[in-house]
Amino acid sequence: MQVFDASSMIHAWDNYPLRQFPGLWEWLGARIAEREIQMPRIAFDEIGHKAPECCEWLKICGIELIDVGNEIAMQSLRIKELLGIVNDNYHPKGVDENDLLIIATARVSGAELISDESRQKLPDVPAKRKIPIVCEMKEVGVPCMNFVVYIKQSGVIFR
Which of 19, 21, 64, 128 has the fewest C-beta atoms lying within 10 Å of its C-beta? Predict the structure, then answer.
């Protein structure tokens, strides 16, 4: 199962238009219907602000939205502590509260996280880490890939 971050779904929507890549979107729609692709509600809400048409498509496909429950909130707090983030003093170059909740959702769900947040070298300050490098932390251990890698790894051929 995969949990999608808003960045990946928006990347796909913007770069692979439904009209030009219908096979891709049919496949994604089928994966959503099979509950193989899910999304944290907070990521879905982010998409709604930037790509409302994409949200409508996701609703039509029946995307399963994952709400923040106690286990996800606790995982998020654990990761926040690992990064040395105190209170709400998030570093502007690192993850924010929503990012931590999205990572925690993937961890609790035992899912891969699909995120198109930029890759980075390991920063000197843990709080500057972005989603992919936080996922790579051994204490977090969430497989994370971007949309293009996800498509390539699927092996699906779109005709």
Answer: 19
